Amino acid sequence: MLRVAISRAVRRCSTNACSVKCKRLEGKVAIVTGSTAGIGFCIAKRLAQEGAKVMISSRKESNVKKAVDELKHAKLQVEGTVCHVEKSADRKNLFDKTKANFGGLDILVPNAAVSPALCTVLETTEEMWDKIFNVNLKATFLLMKESLPFLKCSKSPSITIVTSVAAYQPIDIVGAYSVSKTALTGLCKATAEDLACDRIRVNCVAPGVVKTKFSKALYESETAQRAAVSNISMGRMGMPDEIASVAAFLASDDASYITGESIVVAGGMKSRL
Question: Catalytic amino acids?
Answer without folding.
Answer: 177
